[in-house]
Structure formats: structure tokens, C-alpha cells
From TrEMBL:
Organism this protein belongs to: Toxocara canis (Canine roundworm)
Gene3D superfamilies (UniProt xref): 3.30.70.3370
Protein name, UniProt field: 40S ribosomal protein S24
Keyword RNA-binding: no
Gene Ontology cellular-component terms listed: ribonucleoprotein complex; ribosome
InterPro entries (UniProt xref): eRP_eS24_sf, Ribosomal_eS24, Ribosomal_eS24_CS, Ribosomal_uL23/eL15/eS24_sf
Record's keyword terms, sorted: Ribonucleoprotein, Ribosomal protein
Length: 138
């Protein structure tokens, strides 16, 4: 018996595997490892490369990464800045970079403004746009 979609036996196997994966998505474990950790006293921070293992999951939100790194290094999540994550081909692993500042004042002083605005650190900055310059000239 020839079937266009393969034998019924392989079809049953696909269904069984598919249903097993669907149940694993909610309970997947995320492992965060840091390497190349160095303390930068001039900029008052720790900087490191972060490797994330996330099998059966597309990616991990940066908020979750920040919370876990803050818990790991005994600090608050608002002092942790994670960025530059790339997923490995085939999935299951991502790597990026993280900075952990000593205080929020040092973070506001040394961190780029766009990253502060992404995390909403209650930072207000001087806007030097064209509209502002036009109102100053007039």
C-alpha cells in the first residue's frame, strides 16, 4: 500500500513526537553560564560573556536573563545590562555580553544612552534635534 504522506506507522510516530515536544515547551530548563568574567574598576562594573542553553525553546527574554544574572551575582536587575545575543544555528544555545555596574549612578554615567532608554532607567537626556534648535534660533 503506497501512501502519499508515508506509511501510517511513521505518521503515528510523528504525532507522538510532536505531542511530546509540545508538553516540553512550558517546562524547559534554561541554563546560564558566564565566562571571561573580569572586573573593570575604571568603569565600576563587571563584564562577561554569557552563554545560555535553552533546549526546546526559541530564545530567552533579556528580562529573564537579567533577573537570573542579578540573582547569580547578588545584585538587582536594574544594574545588569545584557545585549548582543546571537542564537547558534540549530537552536538551543545563545551567547551574548553582560555588564553589571556597581551603582545606578555609574550605569547612567558610562552606559550608552540608547541602552538606558531601552531599560527605562528613569533617565532624561538633552534633546538636540532640529526642532529644538529651530525654536532656540527664533
Amino acid at each position: 500500500m503506497f501512501s502519499m504522506f508515508g506509511s501510517s506507522r511513521t505518521g503515528l510516530r510523528r504525532k507522538r513526537i510532536g505531542s511530546g515536544l509540545a508538553s516540553c515547551h512550558a517546562d524547559s530548563v534554561v541554563t546560564i553560564r558566564t565566562r571571561k568574567v573580569m572586573t573593570n574598576r575604571l568603569l565600576a562594573r563587571k563584564q562577561m560573556v554569557v552563554d545560555i542553553l535553552h533546549p526546546n525553546r526559541a530564545s530567552v527574554p533579556k528580562t529573564e536573563v537579567r533577573e537570573k544574572l542579578a540573582q547569580l551575582y547578588k545584585t538587582t536587575p536594574d544594574l545588569v545590562f545584557a545585549y548582543g545575543f546571537r542564537c547558534q544555528f540549530g537552536g538551543g544555545k545563545s551567547s551574548g555580553f553582560a555588564l553589571i555596574y556597581d551603582t545606578l549612578d555609574f550605569a547612567k554615567k558610562f552606559e550608552p544612552k540608547y541602552r538606558l532608554l531601552r531599560l527605562d532607567c528613569n533617565a532624561t537626556f538633552w534633546n538636540c534635534g532640529i526642532a529644538v534648535n529651530a525654536t532656540i534660533i527664533l
